[in-house]
Amino acid sequence: MRALAIKGYNEAPTFIERPIPPVGNSEVLVEVHAASINPLDTKVRKGELKLLLKYNMPLTLGNDFSGIITKVGKDVNKFKVGDEVYGRPRVENMGTFTEYLSVHEEDIALKPKNLTFEEAASIPLVGLTSYQALHDILSIKKGHKILIHAGSGGVGTFAIQLAKEMGAIVATTASDGSDLVKSLGADKVLNYKKEDFEEIIKDYDAVIDSIGGETLEKSFHSVKKGGKIVSISGTPNGRFADNMNLGLFKKILLSLVSSKITKLEKKHDVEYTFLFMQHSGKQLKILSELLETGKIKPIIDRVFTFDKANEALIYSETGKAKGKIILKLKETKRGR
């Protein structure tokens, strides 16, 4: 089967031939119909996550997918051959830019019936990230005020919709995507090229940051005492190392590199969490219900054929996409 892989960090991805993977007792084999491109793919390719994750080369890229089950392991009891599914494989099974994928049954859910494979593939990583940030970490309730950075990006477009569904008042930053984020329910939109959000947004309950750096640091000025900030692009800290059982050496190292953020936490009395999203078929099932009822809709910027995968990755790195970038591996009709 064909897969898009890197043979070393910072190398350009190339198509390689790999054997169809074996299927474990609790796994299913999926014929991949679509996969989505995420900023995480660039971080993996450049080796930015080497401290947290160790991969063998060649490494197939890709972190979420949709497709049809073609084989099931002997202990699988939630799915059957022919089921249309979508998901985010666990870290050790990463690599969805491929024609076939073995994935644990706990990592997938039935594809929402009203979505195409391309639309479904746009959901798992950004959907689970948004759910785990808003529900598991921030515990957003009706009336809470939250700032979601990069509202027109993949995570932003989903998180805005989910936060509104949870009853939150949502502010977001954008440049030229204000019409889009307003249509998704954003109550306040700030043009980050013209406005200093930290001077306008004050005493908010929470922030979701997908940019990191100076944007993350300024976000501490927008959160009230006792508030929370979740970042998927900031620096992991010692608390994260503890939660992930990374060991004493990595805890010390991460504590050192995140010392500036820790000082801001103490100064502003704000809790900072670095989120490394976890696979969860159960949470995907919850999101499926919201998608099937139309309460949340997928936002897709462009769809590329698998042959154009490198072109799609280059486009992703421009940061210009409004919503998700999709790789289409199989020609399929809407619905079945």
From TrEMBL:
The keyword Oxidoreductase applies. Coiled coil: none annotated. The keyword Cell membrane does not apply. GO terms for molecular function: oxidoreductase activity; zinc ion binding. CDD domains: MDR_like_2 (cd05289). Pfam families: ADH_N (PF08240), ADH_zinc_N_2 (PF13602). Transmembrane segments: none annotated. Keywords: Oxidoreductase, Plasmid. Residues 8-327 form the Enoyl reductase (ER) domain. This is NADPH:quinone reductase.
